[in-house]
C-alpha cells in the first residue's frame, strides 16, 4: 500500500515558488542573484494599514473570528464591489480566505466532481490546473498565444465548452502575461457563456488596480448581469496594497456557493488571521491615495523592461495592459547554444542557463502552459531591473 495519496501524483509544486527558493539559495551561497520570479510588490504595506493592525493587537482582537470573515470586513468588501464594480452583494454573499489562492481552492473543492471540466486560458497562473486536479476535476487549457496578445477568443471558448464543463477561470489583467481584456473583448466572451447555462465563471481580479495607460478594468458579472448568479468574483489585497504576507483574499457570489466554500474552510484553516482582517478593512475603507503612485511606478518599470527586452537578440516582448509581469517570446533563441555548449532547446533550459550564467532568475514558460517564453516580474526597483535586463541582453547576444 502506497503511503502518499494518488491525488498528489497528479500535481506538481509551484514553479514560481521553486524559482524564488532557488534564487534565495544561490544568494545565500554568495552568488550575485537577481530574482525576477516572485509576484510580489517591493513596496512596504502603507503606514495606515500597518497602524490599523497594531491597534487591533492592542485592542485584543486576537481571538477566533467567524470562519469566513469578520462582519466589518465583509461590509467593506460589499461597499468596494458596489463602488468599484457596480456589483451588489450582501454580507452573506461574501467570503474571506487566507489569500486569493484559498478562495479559488475552496470554490473548486466545494463544486468539482470527477469528470467535471474547467476551462483555463493559457498562459495561466501556475496554480490553476493543479488546484483543479487536487479538487478532482479535469483542467482544459486553451492556448491564447502571441497572435491574439495572449487573449482567448470567443470562438476558442465556444469550441472548448462541453456538457462536462463546470467552470471557466478568467484572469484579467493576467498572471503571467499582464494582458487585460477590454469591455468589448470581455462582452464577446460573456455572450458565449450566456449560451451555456451549465458553465460557471470564476473571475480572478487580483490585479484590478494595476492597469496602465488608458486601460479600463472590468469584470464579467459587471459586463453581463445575466451571469451574476453563476459568477464568483474573486479579489484580494495582496498585490494592489502590497500585503502579500498578510494573506487576505475574498470573493462575492451566490449564497449557496459561499456557504459551501465556508464549509470547506471550516474543516481546513478555519478563519484567516484576525489581525490581517482588521488590516484589510483599513486597506479597503481607508485612504486610497497611494494606489496611483504604485501604478505610476509599475508603469515606468513596465516600459523600461519592455524596451530593454525588445533590444535583446532573439526576444520579442509585448507590452501588457496591467499587473507587473511581462511574458517575452524567445523563439529567436531556440536552437542556439551558450558559449559553454548548452543548446537552448526549450524555455526551461533557457531559464536554467540564464540563472547559472548570469544570476538572473525568471520562470520558464512551460510552467504557465505556453512556450517558448519566460515570465519576468518587474515588481522590484528600476536599478535592479535595468541590471537584470542588461544581463539578459548580454546572455542572448552570446548565443550562437
UniProtKB/TrEMBL annotation:
Keywords: Aminotransferase, Pyridoxal phosphate, Transferase. One of its GO terms (molecular function) is L-aspartate:2-oxoglutarate aminotransferase activity. Its cofactor is pyridoxal 5'-phosphate. Residues 31-392 form the Aminotransferase class I/classII large domain. CDD domains: AAT_like. GO terms for biological process: amino acid metabolic process. It comes from the Bacteria. InterPro entries: Aminotransferase_I/II_large, AspAT/PAT-like, NHTrfase_class1_PyrdxlP-BS, PyrdxlP-dep_Trfase, PyrdxlP-dep_Trfase_major, PyrdxlP-dep_Trfase_small. SUPFAM superfamilies: PLP-dependent transferases. Gene3D superfamilies: Aspartate Aminotransferase, domain 1 (3.90.1150.10), Type I PLP-dependent aspartate aminotransferase-like (Major domain) (3.40.640.10). Its EC number is 2.6.1.-. It catalyses: L-aspartate + 2-oxoglutarate = oxaloacetate + L-glutamate. Homodimer. Belongs to the class-I pyridoxal-phosphate-dependent aminotransferase family. This is Aminotransferase. It comes from Pseudogemmobacter humi.
